[in-house]
Structure formats: C-alpha cells, structure tokens
Amino acid sequence: MDPIFNEAATKIQNSSLLEYKKNGGRVIGYVCSHVPEEVIAAADMLPFRLRGIEIKSTAIGDSYFGPFVCSCPKALLQNAGEGRFSFLDGAIMVQACDSMRRLDECWRKAGTDFPGSLPDFFHYFAVPHKVTEYSVQFFAEEIEKLAKAIEEHFKVSITEQKLDEAIETYNTTRDLLVQLEALRHRDSPPLTGSEAMAIVLAGTAMPKSDYNKLLGATIEDLKKQRAKTHAGKPRILLAGSVVDDLTLIDAIEAEGAVVVADTVCFGARAYSGHVEKGNSRWETLARRYLNEQFCPRMFGYSNERYELILKKFKDSKADGIVFQNIRFCDLHGSENGLFNKRLDKAGIPNTRIEREYGELSDEGRVRMRIGAFLETLERGKSAA
Amino acid sequence: MRQELMEYDFIWSVNNLLSTAAKTAKGTPKEYQALLKRIPHFADLIDSMVGLGEPGIVFLESFAEYTDMILKAKAQGKKTCFTTFCQSPVILHAMDVVPLVLEVLTVAGTLIRKSAIGEFMDYCLEAGFTETSCSSQRGSMGAYLAGLAEKPDFVLIDTPGICDTNANSFAFAAAHFDIPFYQLNYPPTLDDERSIEYHRKDFKHMISFLEEQTGKKLDVGRLREIMLEMQRQDEMVCELQDLQRLIPNPVPGIYNLFIYAIRFTMAGLPACTRMIEVMLKKAKENAAAKRAGTSSGKEHKRALFVYIDHYAANLPLFNFLDQHNISHLGGILDRYYQEDAFYKGASSYKTETETLDAMIDSLARQNAHLPMVKQIRGPYDSPEMWLDEVKRLAEALNPDLAIYSGTPGCRNTWGMVKLFVNDLEKTGYPTHIINSDAFDDRVESWEATAHRLQEFLDLRGFN
Fold first, then answer.
1. Which of A64, A264, B28, B244 is most exposed, with minimal Cβ within 10 Å?
2. Where are the alpha helices (H) located in B78-219, listed in sequence order?
3. Is the dihedral angle over the CA atoms B433, B439, B441, B446 positive or is it negative?
4. Taking a C-beta distance cutoff of 8 angstroms, is the pair B439, B407 a contact?
C-alpha cells in the first residue's frame, strides 16, 4: 500500500496537501459528510474534511465549549487554535448535530483570541433533517447559495462544465471505494480494516485526481493478492459515531479481529450512492447528499439504518458488530442501544461501547471490551 | 425499579394527587392542617400552591384536568401523541389528539412522585438510551417505556434543527414502540422567505400526517374556535408580561411556570384561559397596591432567567428566589412572540383566522417562534437569536442579574453558553450558570445548587 495513504490519514498537514498549497492551490475545510465536495472542487479548490487528530489535549476546545459536549468539535477547535489548520482558505460549518454546529460560534470567538486561526471565508451551511420534495428543494438552494458565496469570496466561477467534471471525479472515487470495500468482504481480506480506513481517510485530505490514480492502482494490486493473512480472524462490522483516525480500528484489530466493513462517517458513509445526472446540478447534488440517511441526525430513519447495517453485516460475512459512540453523542448512542436490542433478538452478536473521540480514546478499556466480545464470538462458534 | 413505583399508572398518580390537592383548600383550616400531616412528601408543595390562593388552586385543577384528558383519551376515541413543549398543542386539540407533553409530565413527576422520576430516567437506560440524553424527556418517557402509562399512538415533534437530544429521544420512542413519527424540521434562519416557505410546507405536510393518523379531516371551524381562544390567551399573557416590567414586579415568580406548563399542554382550551385570567387578576391587584409578587411584597433584586428554571421536588428555586425577595422576570419558556409582546423585536406572529390558509400560515409562524425553536435554531449571536432576545429583554425588564439553568443533556446551549454568558457580562449583566440538572437533582443536589447561587449573589454584591 502506498505510504502516502497512511501519511494523509495520520497527519493533517500531509505532504500531498503541502505540495498542493505550494503550487498555489486553495483549500476549504468542512466538518460533515453532508457537504457536497463537488461544489468546492468545481471552484478549483481542494475540499478538506477537518479532523481532530494529532492533538495532545482539548484545553482550547474546553475553554469555549461547555463540559457536556462531544470531544470531536472540541478537538477540531484545538487544532484550529494550535494552528494546524493554518493552510485553510475557508471553512464550512454545518448544523450536523448540536455539538458540531456550535463549532461555528466557538471557532469565531477563538479566532479573536488566536489571531490567524479563523479562515477569511467562514460559511454556515444548513442541512435539512428529513427527506421530502420540499426539503430537497431547500437543500438544493442551500448548495447553490454555498456555490455563490464561494464564487463571490474567491472571485472564481463555478460553471456547469466544472461541476460535471467534479461530479464525475467524485463518482469515480465512490466507485473505487466500493470496489475496495468488496475486497474487504473476501473470505481472506487482502488488507486490514485499519489499512482500508487509512485509504478512505486519505481521500478526504488530498487532491482527488491524484487520489483516484493511486487508489485505482492500489485496488489492482490488492486484487492480485492471494495471501491468507487475515483468513480465520473474527470479522467485525464497525458502526456508530464518527471515526476519523486509525486508533479505534487498530485497537480492535490488536485483539485479533479484522474489521471488514463499517457504516461510520468518514468510512462507508462518505462513498455511498452516486450523484446522478439531471437538469439541475444543485438538485442532483442535494438528492445524493440528503438521501444517504446513514447519520441519526436524520431523525425518523432508524429502520432504514438498521436494514443497512444488516445488509453490510451479511455482505461482509461479518461475525459480529461493534457499536460505538463518542460520549455525549446521544444520536448514535441511543440508536446503538435500539439496534443492540434488535440484533440480540435476531441472534446477531454485537456489543456497544462508549468512548472519547479519536486519539483520546482510552485504548486499554476499549481493548478489554473488544477482547471480551471476541471471546463471546469464539465461544458462540465453538458451541455451534 | 422499585416495586412500589410499578403499582400504579404514572398519569393516574399525577392526576390523583393533583386533583386531590386542589380539593384540600376547600376544607376548614383544621382539616387542611391535619391533611398536610398525612402527606409528608407533598405537604410543602401543596402548602405552597394553596398558599398562592386562587391561582395556585386553579393550577392544580387545570393540571388535573389535563391529566384527566390523557386518562380518558382512549375511552373517548381520541388519539394520543408524544410531543414536546415547544410544539404548539393547538392543532392537536383541534384534531382531537391529546398531547403527551413529556417535559411537562416529567416536571409533574418530580413534584408528585418522590424519587420516582430518577428511576424512570434510569429505566430509559435499560431500554437503550444513553445516560447523557436529556433528562426532561427521560423522566416521563421512562414511565411509558416501562409500561406504566398507556402507549401513545404516534409521535409528533418540532425539534430537528433545534435540539438534537430532544428530537433523538422522541425518535427513539417511535422506534421502540414502532409507532408513526413526524418531525417538523427547522432551518437555522427564521424570517427569510425560504425559511417561511419551508415552515409553511412542513406544517401542511404535518396536517396531512395528522389526518392520516386520526382518520379525520381537519375541522376548520373547530380550529378557528381554538385559535381565537388562544388569541385571547395570548393577549392576556402579553398583559401579564408587561406587568413584569414594573418596579417592583407584581407577578409572582411561580406564575412563569404556570404560564408555560398550561400553555404547552392546553393552549386554546378554556382551562388555559381560566388559569391566565386568575393570574392576571392577582398580578393587577399587586400592581395597584405597588406590591412585588414575592410573598413579602418586597423586591430586593430582579433576576432574568435566560433559559429554563429548576424543577427539583417542591420547586426550591422558586422558594429560594421568594425568600431572597428576588423577582423572577421569566425565562425562555415564557416567550412566544405574539405581535403584542413587548420583546418581539423584528419578528413575531399574528393570529389570523379568516381562511384555512391564513390559519395554517399563522400556526406555522407561531410554531416557529416557540421557545427554543426561535432562539437556538441558528448561531446564538445571529440577528433575532438568543443573544439578541436576552439583550432586548434585559433592556425592557431592568434585571440586576441573569441566570442560566438547563440540563447537561442540552448539547445545544452547553455548546455556546460560556460565550453567551461572556457576552452578557460584557454588556453589564452579572450572569450565573447553574451547573445542575433542572430535572434530576441526583446530578447535583438542590442544596449544592443553592449554595453556589448564594455564593454568586454574595460575590456580586446582591445581598
């Protein structure tokens, strides 16, 4: 696997990004999978999904957010305050969930205390919480509004041709990532869950044209691989809150399992579905970015998400499901609870853990829980 | 859960205690005192309600009437729905749907079932909830999940885009009970044409959902009748809130709770009108006598609540304020943005009843201005949002101090409250953050909360 994936997955200011900036490229950061990257790409800029990796504390985040708030946006603010996002030319805030949407105010206020931490272009992006014809229409207008704001601020033009090109590029990425996922479903997956996640994460942090070429070549290599490295290991489907670093999956795999699929933000959620062709680009974008109802911030679609998890579980031939939620992420936490009970009734092994965000995860405790879960899987197999 | 809590239906318990409590005042003083000795857990609460005179007794009667509606709903062929405090019940009453307003029922539970509500909250965890979910729904919802109240027919809320933990709780309940779910969804802006149009379409869509659930077409005449009653209530609420601007403020602090508890459940019904009438009458009498609404009739300081109140058993927050002669100037739960409201700023609603479309527009706009739906849907410092509102209220009400009280489950306000309080302090309003859980005094005992509040008052020179 190309080391550039791992570097982009584990370092915010990765070499690919720095090279892009060195050549005069502009970057817009965003915080949620409901943001249509194609619009940014069509403005000849790099959409960069913001992550809270590399931090050593959340001291800055804690100063602005209150105590009962998820550590994910706090970690993002920490990175902003520590200057790790200094390459950003713009940022898009989203009312993704209550914790994340307050990053808007906290970052703006921190911007006055940490000069230079707030990008000049700072846009608030509204995403409806339901899928109806009028919400899709509203969202299409919101996307158009975003495009106009980018055009106006950066003095660029987002043409239909550029949008079509970007849509094609991003659909190609999605197709490639679906292929990658299919490889993970093999009886003997040619890569670990951590390696797969590194590849997916890299796609959110480097130019897509380079990424697609590298990804295509990697998939071809992986297709040829026949070593039985991961055969026979317990196969895990990972679900729940946002996972944007490798430590959680590393912890699961360190216990002897292999993560063969996921439904998490940054993971499978980022490449599901296609932007279809249509008369209005805004509307086709709106349909793709609103219709993929993986996140429980889309209230009332619990059954659809449950069915998706079941499908992934079957397709990936997983042995068990690990549900996890970041503390204070009630959306995933409560839905994990619902699914946990339904799956128990259906006889599908699963476990439910609560953790802190990303690299702040209490690894020892998580590993102990995973280890215990894997033991139950083993026992279940022996009993069968 | 303790066996004793599982012996009786939760709603029946609330109904039974409140309706009985309302009758106590009809006895002789000797009978009344004898009765208090027999109900040690509720004596303080009942005594403080009865001590308020007619408004206290009418509140007990009105709330008993509300819970009676719930108990009789199925027998009368009415549907029931889980709903939330910031969803107007008017359209539900017009369609013969009985609203089960979980937050209000949780408060009722904290008042009448000693320690029970905590166990109901914990039951939610057994059902799959996170312990960090908002306690305001978890209390009464726990009773429903545990089978201690009759399962609702459907869920209807308006908090997506406003409060995730709220919306999430209701979505959880719909999935748990496998019942239909409808959400009114709010964009982060309020008064632009796109948002208004979105509210309108969403509200019409909701009416179709209600028609489907009830099997009945919306009765336009009935809706008009209820809306006109609500308009009358709105006018009186505005009058009552105008009185709060007087120095001293003649409106007793507990009236704020009465206003929202009754409005969230029975807006548009005669019981709500009667409740507001008696409060207005008493407040006017106080104003005429230049008396404050405190028990002593004196006003030492004026406190503006910028979010919600505190609902531990026996309502100690209100007693604390009363004992310190601090006037309660209302909180976010009392702000409805009627066109006559003194705090309306550039955004309000008007009750229009000429045509069905006008009524729907009017209701959609009213709903968009309800507590939380208006103030915390977008960035707190955007025009017409939370900070704007509180500054405007502060200018009109002349508070000496401001107090934030909420729940740890409130991701939305805890995500920004430090910044918000900082802004208020800079504007010149000493502001205290209560760190406890307004609905669950196991998180922080009232004694600890009171100690910190007292410390704030001492340090800022309010004693």
1. B28
2. 90-94, 102-112, 116-127, 135-145, 164-177, 193-214
3. positive
4. yes
Verify whether the Cβ–Cβ distance B415 to A296 is below 8 Å.
no
Q: Is residue B126 part of a domain?
A: yes
Alpha-carbon distance values, B87 to A130, A151, A352, B82, B259 (Å): 17, 39, 33, 11, 15
Phi and psi at residue B127, to the nearest 5°: -80, -10
| Predicted model pTM | 0.96
* Residue B213 forms part of a structural domain: yes
Would an 8 Å CB–CB cutoff place A350 in contact with chain B?
no
| Cβ contact, residue pair B183, A303, below 8 Å | no
Question: How far are the Cα atoms of A153, A155, A316, B95 from residue A148, in angstroms, in the given order?
Answer: 8, 10, 41, 44
Residue burial B219-239, b: 16+ Cβ < 10 Å; e: rest = eeeebbebbebbbbbbbbbbe
Which of B204, B199, B221, B206 lies closest to B377 in space, CA to CA?
Answer: B199
For residue B265, how many C-alpha atoms fall within 13 Å in the half-sphere facing its CB?
A: 28
- For A148, counting Cβ atoms within 10 Å of its Cβ (0-12 exposed, 13-18 middle, 19+ buried), the class is exposed
Token readout for A117 is: 């931490």
Of A63, A105, A297, the CB nearest to B381: A105
Q: d(Cα A203, Cα A208) in Å, to the nearest integer?
A: 7
Instruction: Write out pLDDT tens, residues B398-430.
Output: 999 999 999 999 999 999 999 999 999 999 999
pLDDT number for residue B3: 87
Enumerate the β-bridge partners of residue A47.
Answer: A28
Domain that includes residue B67, residue range = 3-219
Phi, psi angle pair for A121, to nearest 5°: -95, 115
Per-residue tokens: A215: 């990804």
Name the one residue in this structure whose structure tokens are 């025009």.
B383
Place of tokens 């993560």: A259
DSSP symbol at B5: G
Q: 10 Å Cβ neighbour count for A311?
A: 12
Q: B159 in a domain, yes or no?
A: yes
CATH of the domain at B119: 3.40.50.11890
DSSP A298: S
- The reply to whether ipTM tops 0.90 is yes
Task: Give the 3-state secondary structure of residue B301.
Answer: strand
Is the peptide bond preceding residue B152 cis, with omega within 30 degrees of 0? no
For chain B, the domain total comes to 1
Kindly tell me the sign of the dihedral angle through the C-alpha atoms of B43, B47, B48, B50. positive
- Cross-chain CB nearest to B198 (options A101, A106, A138): A138
Question: Is residue B282 a part of any domain in this protein?
Answer: no
Domains with residue ranges and CATH for chain A: 25-156 (3.40.50.11890)
CB within 8 Å of chain A, chain B residues 358-417: 378-381, 408-417
The tokens describing B66, both together, are 């509300």
Q: Which residues of B touch A65 (CB under 8 A)?
A: 414-416, 418
Q: What is the DSSP letter of A261?
A: E
- Is B263 within 8 Å of B338 (Cβ atoms)? no
Compute the count of residue pairs across chains A and B with CB atoms less than 8 Å apart: 148
What does the pLDDT read at residue A6? 96
Cα separation, B67 vs B48, in Å, equals: 21
